[in-house]
Amino acid sequence: GKSDLTIKNFRNSAFNRFELEIPIEKDVAPEDVIYFLSLMNANFLFSIDKTCYIFYFKKYIIVLYSFTLNNKEYKILEIELRQADFNLISEAEDLLSELTGFSKSSRIKESKFQIIKKALNI
Q1: What does the alpha-carbon distance between residue 122 and residue 116 come to, in Å, rounded to a whole number?
Q2: Exposure pattern of 76-101 as b/e (b: 16+ CB <10 Å)?
Q3: pLDDT digit string, tens, across residues 81-109
């Protein structure tokens, strides 16, 4: 499968975030990437298995992430806009409000990285 290395900044707001994705050839082992980054003085913090389901809509993409940490299952829905129209977030949330257990008011204030770090006490 296709892999990439994503470099993110640490802004608190998702609207003020920068991400750089670097594609990695499929025959490159993850261990080789980790070793290369360690040569650049990067510290390896953790590894988790994460499943993601990607649903394409005309105006946005909805991604369902699922992972388990410390015997607790996390399910996170992420809305990625195809255009800079923040009304689309409400539109997608209205669509998702039909789901049991989904609430517009339960927006995540942390990134997946921050959630995982906190759960692992790093």
Answers
A1: 9
A2: ebebeeeeeeeebeeebbeeeeeeee
A3: 888 887 888 888 888 888 887 777 777 77
Q: Tell me if 13 sits within 8 A of 32, measured CB to CB.
A: no
CA distance 27 to 94: 41
Tens-digit pLDDT profile for residues 36-47: 999 999 988 888
- The residue assigned the tokens 């005309």 is 58
C-beta neighbour count of 64 within 10 angstroms: 13
Please tell me the pTM assigned to this model.
Answer: 0.71
How far is Cα 20 from Cα 30, in angstroms, rounded to an integer?
A: 18
Using CA atoms, how far apart are residues 4 and 23, in angstroms rounded to an integer? Answer: 4
